[in-house]
């Protein structure tokens, strides 16, 4: 599937190494997930997914605890989950997930990030049909054969298992997220290089060099927005 998940994560981590932006975004996401049900990951599956992903980005425990305590305290701060779809240079496709307390501000900022970098926003459904919701896990210290065996022993079906550098990446249906996670934990694996629900492009495209430069600038502009949670696209960046 060619997504090179470890390289993507390292790029994002490096980009945010000297700022607290990524932690602030996770704090907001954890707070919202904790408010959707009990503020306990064992009984709140949405919270459990967010916490697992936060762990792979080394989000400090203090930020996690503060967000959960804020949810427990009955804060009246409300956020809306939004999804935008659009096109980048050379017809590339982009999905933007946001979490905001000001819908008009977020829509304006996302539209500007597209428009100023050779892209444009599309209508709902114009892009999403070319992506599949997917659970992705990455583990180290195991071969693809060993991972396949432990998942088979747990009677867990997955889409694909590939080796990427020093990791094994597992792709599964989104509803299998917790089953895959528990299969790994039963096998003694509790640390993941990747653990998230994502939107995976059905087909990746390569862009000409000049278009790729514009595209990367557009993606950076979108990811820099305070309200943007995740950005998905169908471009092979050759990382």
From TrEMBL:
Keywords: Cytoplasm, DNA-binding, Transcription, Transcription regulation. NCBIfam families: PRK00110.1, PRK12378.1, YebC/PmpR family DNA-binding transcriptional regulator. Residues 3-74 form the TACO1/YebC-like N-terminal domain. PANTHER family: TRANSLATIONAL ACTIVATOR OF CYTOCHROME C OXIDASE 1 (PTHR12532). Its main location: cytoplasm. This is Probable transcriptional regulatory protein D1B31_12205. One of its GO terms (biological process) is regulation of DNA-templated transcription. It is found in: Cytoplasm. Belongs to the TACO1 family. YeeN subfamily. InterPro entries: Integrase-like_N, TACO1_YebC-like_2nd/3rd_dom, TACO1_YebC_N, Transcrip_reg_TACO1-like, Transcrip_reg_TACO1-like_dom3, Transcrip_reg_TACO1_YeeN, YebC-like. Residues 79-235 form the TACO1/YebC-like second and third domain. Gene3D superfamilies: 1.10.10.200, 3.30.70.980. GO terms for cellular component: cytosol. It comes from the Bacteria. The keyword Repeat does not apply. One of its GO terms (molecular function) is DNA binding. It comes from Neobacillus notoginsengisoli. It holds the Pfam family Transcrip_reg.
């Amino acid at each position: 599937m060619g997504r090179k998940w470890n390289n993507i994560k390292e790029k994002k981590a490096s980009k945010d190494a000297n700022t607290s932006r990524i932690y602030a975004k996770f704090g907001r996401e954890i707070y919202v997930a904790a408010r959707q049900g009990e503020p306990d990951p064992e009984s709140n599956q949405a919270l459990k997914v967010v916490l697992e992903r936060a762990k792979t980005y080394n989000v400090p425990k203090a930020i996690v605890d503060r967000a959960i305590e804020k949810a427990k305290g009955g804060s009246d701060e409300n956020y809306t989950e939004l999804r935008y779809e659009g096109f980048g240079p050379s017809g590339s496709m982009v999905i933007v997930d946001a979490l905001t307390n000001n819908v008009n501000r977020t829509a304006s900022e996302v539209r500007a990030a597209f428009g100023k970098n050779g892209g444009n926003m599309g209508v709902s459904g114009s892009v999403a049909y070319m992506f599949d919701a997917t659970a992705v896990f990455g583990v180290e210290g195991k071969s693809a054969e060993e991972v396949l065996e432990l998942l088979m022993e747990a009677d867990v079906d997955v889409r694909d298992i590939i080796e990427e550098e020093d990791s094994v990446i597992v792709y599964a249906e989104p509803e299998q997220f917790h089953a895959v996670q528990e299969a790994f934990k039963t096998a003694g694996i509790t640390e993941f290089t990747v653990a998230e629900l994502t939107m995976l492009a059905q087909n990746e495209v390569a862009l000409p060099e000049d278009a790729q430069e514009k595209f990367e600038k557009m993606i950076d502009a979108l990811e820099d927005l305070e309200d943007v949670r995740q950005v998905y696209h169908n471009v092979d960046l050759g990382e």
